Amino acid sequence: MAAPANRPDPAAVARPRGRPRKTASQRDDGNRRLELVRAAARLFRRKGFDATSTRDIAAAVGMRSGSPFYHFKSKGALLAAVMEEGMRTAMASQTRLLEQVGGPHAPTDQALILRALIRNHFDVLLGPDSDFIPVMLYEWRSITPRQRTAVRRLKDSYEALWVPVLTALHRDGVLGCEPKLARLLIFGALNWSAQWFDPKQGASLDQLTDNAMGLFIHQNIDQGP
Amino acid sequence: MAAPANRPDPAAVARPRGRPRKTASQRDDGNRRLELVRAAARLFRRKGFDATSTRDIAAAVGMRSGSPFYHFKSKGALLAAVMEEGMRTAMASQTRLLEQVGGPHAPTDQALILRALIRNHFDVLLGPDSDFIPVMLYEWRSITPRQRTAVRRLKDSYEALWVPVLTALHRDGVLGCEPKLARLLIFGALNWSAQWFDPKQGASLDQLTDNAMGLFIHQNIDQGP
DNA sequence: CCTACCGATCGGTAGG
DNA sequence: CCTACCGATCGGTAGG
Fold first, then answer.
1. CA distance A147 to A136
2. What average pLDDT does the segment A161-169 reach?
3. B169 touches chain A (CB under 8 A)
4. Is the minimum distance from the CB of B88 to strand C below 7 Å?
5. Whole-angstrom Cα distance, residue A202 to residue A199?
6. Res B108: pLDDT
């Protein structure tokens, strides 16, 4: 376990010690930080925060045990970075989407907007590189109250964009639940899919979206008068 | 931290050592085991399995650090006991319910049965003594594959009783999602409430049930032809 | 069920 | 970013 076969033993390489000078072929700093966050996201999701050691994370990016602390002042700071990175990506993708559907040729049908939001959310949650949001959802306990506040703010602003859509649909009679509770129940339903969804079998994200819409939205089959 | 003020220091009591003889006033064995399971459920839920030490659990029932291992062969066995106890209770309560609504004066309306199932589920999940199911839902990773199989069997048989109801509602056109996916999405929505529900404010379990039904079931307002 | 204890692991740090 | 290390904690056990 101490020296996996697929990683060269750093002690045997006799590479120069100390802070590496930034010569041409050397990887740059920002990348290493992001590599750590990504590796941490994968491990935190698979094994949980407490069961993941900082040594695991270091090994995953080819560092020695103490080195992650050169980039992050604590294991908890690494977790917070995973959560914030995940929420920022999700938020960016959702904002981009809403600019499209809110554009000059905006659909008047709020159900179409909800559909796009759900589809985008499944993408963020189940698509490639999708360990960040599950970690945020299931590792609340392991960050400090201050960090919790910051992450919650991001999460709230992400979900807040759904509320006017839900409110309109409720007013139109196709959403049979008050918007505030609808938000909680719907996100519960969607987010839980991270536990059971298997991309290699079963439904596609489009089919998932169709079924979720069918479950939540009471389609009005009647045409006009 | 080593000796909380509200617990007498056992080293100072000079009580008799060794295996206690079962004199009249002594608590009996089975109770101690159940006390451990209950304390473990509460701690596992609040702090997570990994962040809870067996010493925490021992202290919560007034034992010394090594004593839980007299009742359980490992910390993992204690976790499995929590999950199984939770599922057994939930299953019993649900079976009792279905015998009532399936009795001689059974309602023909499947929506009424779903309503009863949801209401009972909220009770199991959010009522008093409700740490067991959340622990089962969020600590899968920490039990062995063998234990996972056992718990999953209990969980599947619990949820399986919902499927015929969902199938009938789907056939009747008031559930707009195929039953298999409906089960996953609905349980996701319901179970997530364990994360946000606050009994001291907001809705009652009845109101919660009403809103969930409104969200999932497309009420047919039309009367017959 | 307590006492006394062990080996392992872990987060984190000093110094370069 | 590595080396070498520390103090703390933890699950679990022997023996009574």
1. 11
2. 98
3. no
4. no
5. 7
6. 73
Strand, coil or helix: B174: coil
pLDDT: is A5 or A109 the higher one? A109
Per-residue pLDDT at A74 exceeds 60 = yes
Question: How confident is the model at residue A129, as a pLDDT?
Answer: 92
Distance in Å from C13's C1' to A75's CA comes to 14
Helix axes B179-196, A205-216, angle to 10 degrees: 70
The answer to whether the CB of A39 falls within 8 A of the CB of A57 is yes
Split chain B (225 residues) into runs of 10 and give each run's mean pLDDT.
37 38 46 97 97 98 97 97 97 96 77 98 96 97 94 96 98 97 98 95 93 92 41
Question: In chain A, helix, strand, coil percent, each to 5?
Answer: 65, 0, 35
Q: How many CA atoms lie within 13 A of A37 on its CB side?
A: 20
Q: What angle do the packed helices B110-126 and B179-196 form, to 10 degrees?
A: 30
What DSSP designation does A20 have? P
Radius of gyration of chain B measured on its C-alpha atoms: 22
Global pTM reads 0.87
In this structure, what token pair is assigned to residue A200? 């290699």
At A94-141, the pLDDT tens digits run 999 999 987 777 667 999 999 999 999 999 999 999 999 999 999 999
| CB nearest to B193's CB, from A142, A188, A213 | A188
Task: Report the distance separating Cα B98 and Cα A120, nearest Å.
Answer: 39
CB B187 within 8 A of CB B179: no
Q: Strand C and chain A: which residues 85-124 have CB closer than 7 Å?
A: none
How many CA atoms, within 13 angstroms, populate the side-chain half-sphere of residue B84? 13
Structural contact between residues A98 and A114, judged by C-beta atoms closer than 8 angstroms: no
The whole-angstrom separation of Cα A108 and Cα A102 is 9
Helices A145-160/A75-101 angle, 10° precision: 10
Close Cβ partners of A43 (under 8 Å, ≥ 6 residues apart): A52, A56, A57, A60
Label residue A219 by pLDDT band (50, 70, 90): confident
The reply to whether B73 Cβ lies less than 7 angstroms from strand D is yes
Residue type, A218: H
Model pLDDT, residue A101: 86
Backbone phi, then psi, for A131, in 5-degree steps? -90, -20
Query: What is the residue type of B106?
Result: A
Q: How far apart are CA B213 and CA B208, in angstroms?
A: 9
Assigned token pair, A165: 């859509």
Q: Residue A86: which pLDDT band, with cuts at 50, 70 and 90?
A: very high
Q: Does A216 touch chain B (CB under 8 A)?
A: yes
Q: Which residues of A touch B217 (CB under 8 A)?
A: 176
